[in-house]
Design a protein that fits this description.
With 127 residues, the protein is mainly α. The protein has four helices and no strands. The longest helix is centred in the middle third of the chain and has 27 residues.
Length: 127
């Protein structure tokens, strides 16, 4: 039974990925602090934050799906920043690949939620 957004596996995964990005990005060059470092941290954190917000709006299926779509967009943006970090030599191939696979999994979970928003509706909204 879901008691809150923290119970969602997709929230847990996206939060953990964002924390891993935070720790890895500490090693990025100082000149990237206001560009790549800031952008990748913001987009990765936004996935979990939008999930939490969307969970509160789940009684309204269209709003819920809209927030999940935002999450999916932020997860995809994070993958682009991961590509930049790899190509700039700031991130190892191993870390890049592991994080990318994680965000692909987040995308699959979000797609399942978007296809079946009624499964996440509060009990009073169910038939």
């Amino acid at each position: 039974m879901l008691r809150g957004h923290r119970d969602l596996k997709v929230f847990q995964l996206s939060y953990n990925l964002a924390m891993e990005i935070f720790h890895l990005s500490k090693a990025f060059p100082r000149e990237e602090i206001y560009s790549l470092t800031d952008q990748i941290r913001r987009s990765s954190r936004s996935v979990a934050a939008n999930l939490a917000e969307g969970f509160r709006k789940r009684r309204y299926p269209n709003m819920f799906v809209s927030k999940l779509t935002d999450c999916d967009g932020e997860a995809t943006e994070t993958q682009v920043w991961l590509d930049f970090a790899l190509d700039c030599g700031y991130l190892s191939k191993e870390n890049h690949d592991r994080l990318t696979v994680g965000y692909e999994e987040v995308g699959k979970m979000l797609s399942g939620m978007m296809a079946n928003p009624e499964r996440f509706a509060p009990k009073q909204n169910r038939d």
